[in-house]
Amino acid sequence: MLTVDAALDRLTHALSAAKAGGATAADAVYIGDASTQVGVRLGVLEDIQRSEGEEVGLRVFVGQRVASVSTSDLSPAGLGLVVERALAMAREASEDQFAGLAPEERLLRAAAPDLDLDDGGDPSSESLKSAALAAEDAARAVEGVTNSEGGGASAGRAVTALATSGGFAQGYRGTSYGVSASVLAGAGEAMQRDYAYHSVRHLADLEDAETTGRRAGERAVRRLNPRKLATQSLTVVFDPRVGSSLLGHLIGAIGGGSITRRTSFLLDALGTQIFAPGIQVTDNPHRIRGLRSRPFDGEGLATTPTPIIRDGVLSQWLLDASSARQLGLAPTGHAVRGTSGAPGAGPANLHLSGGSGTAADLMRGIGRGLYVTELIGMGVNGLTGDYSRGCSGFVIEDGELGEAVAEVTIAGNLKDMFANLAAADDLVFRHATNVPTLRIEGMTLAGA
Asked: Which GO BP terms, alphabetically (predicted)?
């Protein structure tokens, strides 16, 4: 895997060759990564996986014609062939009136902010094995746990670099660490499974493996002897680990591609109230040690914390350069890309805030409801906002959690769900997308 400086050197040489070959503009991205993953099961080492890879993606423009090519051959000869191939493809492509690099005046010209994404660590396979064993042992030690799907630990390192013919050339590196456990409780057809995991940028921030494992075991045991519920309308409360999926549906509806294709249920919602007053949704690419923090976007634009929902009002589309041109707007610094194809638009570190009161306060007053801890399937229509997903969790009776529930489906429409959403004050920044406990009135439960 190359250093940032070495990667930028390869990219700038490729861009120079593209310009010399007739490209009117070009950009190139390098992504290199290496990771080690250790898995154990029932106290025995199951596998150790070590993977390393690096790739360059080149995008060239010949007027309004564009082509993208990627390669893992980073030698001068290999990159030279990629340049030739990309130029030949671009000359045969159809014209795209919206094709082009991001505006040069919007590029990040200053030094990239230090987001503390790399702790310089490189833990041994043996230390990862010890963490995986500790997680699984702690999960299996919980009374009622009868089997295991395994424990795991991982460590990784990645380098990202981007250069454009408009004069941008920067990169950054980051580390990542994780620990997990997945176990089963009960016996026979009554067995229930659950899991827990934790991922961080710095090893020092990773919770101890025993805590992760114990959480997995306790979750599995708590799900034993689930009941079914009859079809009814009720209040649904989403645990934070599944409530974050609601923000995923929001982002899918406000990305530039969905808006330009007119395939979003929020197509006409910009500037309107779609959540209750007080609700805020923010994208923060500058969170220190954030899992998706980035100093610049996939087209070289400076990133900045962005309020997407401000006091319940949708205030922002997420736009790359192409979708911005189609809408007659400015790109928002949310371009994301790999080494193949054109950039799209997406968030960095996303969170919902604005709740008041504890999770217990949020459930107080619910005579009968459902507390959801797991969602199954992807029954969401991005065009209409219709929502239907299988789930499991716990009955809420008189404001308290009761028996486990399984094999039910909850349904509604995302417009109504967003409008009727209330949040607790228990937001914790643990993942790339974070929400507190969420409550939604008036959903339909399809049961037995």
From this structure: proteolysis
